[in-house]
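Project standup — Tuesday

K.O.: blocked on the structure for the chain from last sprint. Re-posting the sequence here as requested.
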Amino acid sequence: YSPIQAQVRFNPVPWLNLTEYAQIPWIDKNQFWEFNTYLTWTVTPNIDVTLLHSYLNHNPLEPKTNSTYLQTYFRINSNWGFSILEEYDQTTGRLGVQKYTIHRDLSSWIASLGLYENNNGGNKTTYGVELILTLKDLPKYGFPVNLSPGL
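H.V.: unblocked you, prediction finished:
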């Protein structure tokens, strides 16, 4: 069987939206539960702030998590941006992930270079560098085929 999944988005004005994503078991209540609530506010055309609350229960990897994320994105100009992501784990009471990323628009691609720190608890902190390449649009290819013969 598969769980019940729902996604609801409320966008009362162009600069504010609220999204709720839920995944709930419908037969066995001791199965995987997930709730993610996003609130995104476009403060100015160059600043976006997103607050996310994530609740996960009965997951085989992590039995119960309850986290709050704060992400900000700053558009420096039409080609450059900078983002900050902070995660607070309410279950353990620690600041888990801190990520700082610079973004560059390369026309068809977006390149992002980020530094992060992940506090795994028990004095175990990992540091990393990430490079992300995102394709903005698929190239447009046309086929020289006439689908209306005789025209």
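K.O.: great, moving the ticket to review. The chain has one domain: 4-135. The domain at 4-135 is CATH 2.40.160.10 (Porin).
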